[in-house]
């Protein structure tokens, strides 16, 4: 385990700063993240972990907000499931080119956000972390189009499954399709962010998915949205 030095707070922004855990396999990728993360205004501290057991202990004890994984590490097993047991933990997966082109690979890599390794820059990483902090789902445009296109193509061959959403849940789903954050949805519906989180969780549970993009894809396949 190598600790990345904390970055001094020289920003005037009042937004929350994030504790970031990193678990990636490729050495060059680790070094790149080690160089980039301390320079991001949104990062309070970051630590790298090479062993899953050490990562699990740290996530349980140290209150991390974001877990960054490579697609190889995410597919390997337990780290990608930790977000289900750690409240508030967001998972960002750095996709290899081959995985980005494979629907089967993406199905094995549930996450709260994705970045393409070949497009990884400090600016892209900073933007993705800010989106995760705002309860949004960062995803490259071409990857989102690919997932939605394939979902639409396969919708007519899938067996129908009844999903009963309340009127409020339908409203929330529509806002998820539009890419709104929890704060924006709360403003539109004139309810609290806590209420929105509860509704989003209910929608994900009823659709049987783990994140917002998967919810949109599932809703297309099930004919809940156009």
UniProtKB/TrEMBL annotation:
UniProt xrefs under PROSITE patterns: HTH_LUXR_2
Organism encoding this protein: Streptomyces oryzae
Cell cycle in keyword set: no
Keyword Phosphoprotein listed: no
Domain of life: Bacteria
Protein name, UniProt field: Response regulator transcription factor
Occurrences of domain HTH luxR-type (ranges): 158-223
PANTHER family: DNA-BINDING TRANSCRIPTIONAL ACTIVATOR DEVR_DOSR
Family matches, as SMART domains: HTH_LUXR
Keyword vocabulary terms for this entry: DNA-binding, Transcription, Transcription regulation
Gene3D superfamilies linked: 3.40.50.2300
Family annotation (CDD domains): LuxR_C_like
């Amino acid at each position: 385990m190598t600790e990345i030095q904390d970055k001094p707070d020289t920003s005037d922004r009042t937004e929350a700063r994030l504790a970031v855990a990193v678990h990636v396999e490729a050495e060059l990728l680790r070094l790149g993240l080690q160089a980039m993360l301390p320079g991001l205004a949104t990062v309070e501290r970051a630590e790298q972990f090479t062993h899953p057991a050490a990562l699990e202990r740290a996530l349980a004890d140290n209150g991390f907000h974001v877990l960054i994984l490579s697609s190889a590490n995410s597919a390997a097993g337990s780290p990608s499931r930790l977000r289900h047991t750690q409240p508030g933990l967001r998972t960002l997966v750095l996709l290899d080119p081959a995985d980005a082109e494979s629907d089967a690979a993406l199905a094995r890599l549930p996450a709260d956000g994705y970045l393409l390794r070949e497009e990884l820059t400090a600016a892209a990483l900073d933007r993705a972390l800010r989106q995760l902090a705002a309860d949004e789902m960062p995803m490259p445009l071409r990857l989102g189009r690919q997932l939605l296109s394939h979902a639409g193509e396969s919708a007519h061959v899938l067996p129908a499954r009844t999903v009963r959403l309340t009127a409020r849940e339908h409203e929330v789903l529509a806002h998820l399709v539009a890419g709104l954050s929890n704060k924006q949805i709360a403003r539109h519906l004139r309810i609290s962010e806590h209420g929105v989180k509860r509704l989003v969780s209910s929608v994900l549970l009823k659709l049987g998915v783990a994140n917002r993009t998967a919810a949109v894809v599932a809703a297309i396949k099930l004919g809940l949205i156009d």
